[in-house]
Amino acid sequence: MKLVRYYTSGAPEVLQIEDAAIPQPEAGQVLVKVEAIDVGYVDTQMRNEDSPWGTPTFLVAPGDYVYGTVVQVGPEVGEVQVGERILGFAPVGAYAEYALVPLGLRFQPLPEASLSPEEMVTLPVAGETAYHLLATSAQLRPGERVLIHAAAGGIGHFAVQLARTMGAGQIIATASSATKLDVAQTLGADTLINYTEPGWTEQVMQATGGKGVDVILDVVGGQILVESLPLLASFGRLIVSGAASGRIPALPSESVSQLMMGLKRIEGFSSFTLMQQHPDLIAQGRQAFRRYVEQGNVRPRIMRTFALEEVAEAHHLLESRASYGKIVLRP
Q1: What percent of the chain has pLDDT over 70?
Q2: DSSP string across 239-252
Q3: By CB distance 3.0 to 4.6 Å, which of 1, 21, 49, 320 could disulfide with 97?
């Protein structure tokens, strides 16, 4: 089978397509013939060794969510049958024609009549993260104003749709280009702001009549995070989940004072930590998010699908910051 590996950090060209033996499932695992593979920005950060979440141990066969058909089951597997369609996380070797998925890491797929394999595979990471940012962490209430950074990105484009469905009073979308802002508008954003331009914070305050926003979702980090704090209204919540800028900044003392005196809070979010420490919240969120998708209120936006042999091109597109929605691989 074809499999993507890399032996050192660097540009996307370090990703190598290799021939490998088809793996055999062990106890609690199933072997999946892969049809679609999720690709996220964190994959490029890990490859570059600039991820704030740590560095990989080489050699690396990237792990991610895959969607496909079960072709073999391991010992002690009774609830999944050969021929069954499955969506699940392959911790190692997801960028491949076949992948091993532990049963504990599977996600109940929706009927294919409603979503394509490419759309399906994007739901667990980007979609569920967006849900938990708004519902679990921010606890968004109807009528509240929400500011979503990178609103056309993998997580952001889900967050815009969810915020609209949850009854947000005003959705302010930021992005780095007019094209991305247009995408955010089609998804339901009310106010569009380019956060790479000078004075973007003033535009936010003007759009809210000087009141600020109740919720901010930030996956960018860096200086954007620091500049966002003054935009919170009293009892506002800034939820941090990622650092696409490659940097999580230390907050200056004046920012800490703003939090205290302004009755504001900043909170971190990690899907991995939530899964490890609060599986009950993961299960509840999965059901709620699934209902939104089934009802047609939320739908993935796939910008482009790449063949497995084009994996370096897919990573280049993500790193160019020209992409929107989701990027998917197909073996």
Answers
A1: 93
A2: EE---TTS--PPPP
A3: 1
**Do the strands 326-330 and 302-307 form a parallel or antiparallel pair, or are they unpaired?**
parallel
CATH node for 2-122+301-330:
3.90.180.10
Q: Which residues contact 81 (CB under 8 A, 6 or more apart)?
A: 70, 73
CATH for the 125-272 domain, from 1.20.1640.10, 3.40.50.720, 3.40.50.620, 3.40.47.10: 3.40.50.720
Q: What is the 3-state secondary structure (H, E, C) of 93-120?
A: CCCECEEEEEHHHEECCCCCCCCCHHHH
Instruction: Tell me the C-alpha distance between 219 and 255, whole Å.
Output: 18
User: What pLDDT sits at residue 243?
Assistant: 67
Unique residue bearing structure tokens 């032996």: 7
> Which tokens in the block code for residue 304?
């482009």
pLDDT at 236: 96
